[in-house]
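Readers of this paper often ask what the protein records in our data store actually look like. Such a record has a labelled line for the sequence and another for the backbone structure tokens. Nothing more is needed to write down the fold, since each code stands for a local backbone conformation. The record that follows is passed on verbatim for readers who wish to inspect the format.
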Amino acid sequence: MKKTFFLPLTVCILFLLFTPACSNPASSGTSPANPGETPISPGEDDDSGSGGGEDGEKAKILSVSAGGSHTFILMDDGTLWASGANGSGQLGLPNTASANSITQVPDISNVKAVYASNDQTLAIKTNGTLWVAGSNDQGQLGMGATRTVTVFTQVPGVSGVKAVYPGWTHTLIVTNDGTFYGTGRNAEGQLGLANTTNKTTFVPVPIIESEVKGVYVGADHTLVLKNNNTLWAVGRNDYGQLGLGYTGNQTSFIQVPFDGSSIKAVYAAGHHTLILKNNETLVAAGANFYGQIGLGDTTNNQTSFTSVPEGYNIKDVYTGYGHTMILKNNGTLWATGVDTNGKLGMGSACDIFTFTQVPINGSDIKAVYPGFTHTLLLKDDGTLCATGSNSSGQLGFVNEENETSKYTFTEVPL
């Protein structure tokens, strides 16, 4: 598996003043997203008649998903819109050129949910079928082979899909009858099949839905919270991300020594895992080489779940590959971890090793969507803001000023 490593930042580019939270970009631009293709704003009418709501009402954002270097937006009319890297066909466009502004994805409609991962994207339609595009080198798309899929294609033999849980190069799904299936990379045991053999089609995973309260998938590891308040984990554990108290990969689900009755939510990230407890405090385990679990350093990986400074009065948690963000009950947004290209929205490109408040009003934040190189947030009024790398257009800005990054959350033109 190809791995991406961040280089240590030796120079911090600090702004004298932070730009206003969710300010309009200096230039919205109108240049085509792809050669010969003019982007249509979500909700505008086009020749196909798609994109508009009832009686011409503009469609609204239903959900957002941030992948490696690409972004997907699902509108409430069932259409998909995307921008960013497309070298593996992960945008599902007619070519593999990057899209530097939000562009409608053709030939797919009636979408219920979308999941952007590393260099691949998965979508569930309202009829329960699963459609995929992008990288498939480990079999993560479940197509029966490892060839790249450059336009959205239905996965054969899969129906009644209820939810998708994408990892970096493996994928879990659950169907309406309660059966869990997995496909893709399994070298670290992340599919929970008691072996390390990759799969190119979805095969049953020994999880019983009636016993399951939640499933949480990181880059190469998987956790399951059962209704009896026990937490189980499988897969990569070289940084202690399974919270077992020791390192070493697990190929079968093993119970985590943690009081599951205290768990409100679990968040599996790149190589770290966080638990939000019922008392609104946060604990973490796993990799901390970027400061992503917020302990104030980059040296102490944690093999057991450890209390996090500033991890209190938390409303929600959002995890990226090497960074973590928390929204507190008082409406403030906090971040820690790698800040390559400004993806923490702090106004700089400096890594942060403990949770630090982001200069934005979080009282109207609906959700935050961290990717590998960038972060997006959706406000209650439907405004979408983004920060971080825009080298492939993943922020959705028409890049007339040749900006490769945004360092504070800036409104995305829709």
Remarks:
- Confidence is low (pLDDT under 50) at residues 1-40, 44-53.
- The longest strand covers residues 199-208.
- Residues 300 and 364 are 34 Å apart (CA to CA).
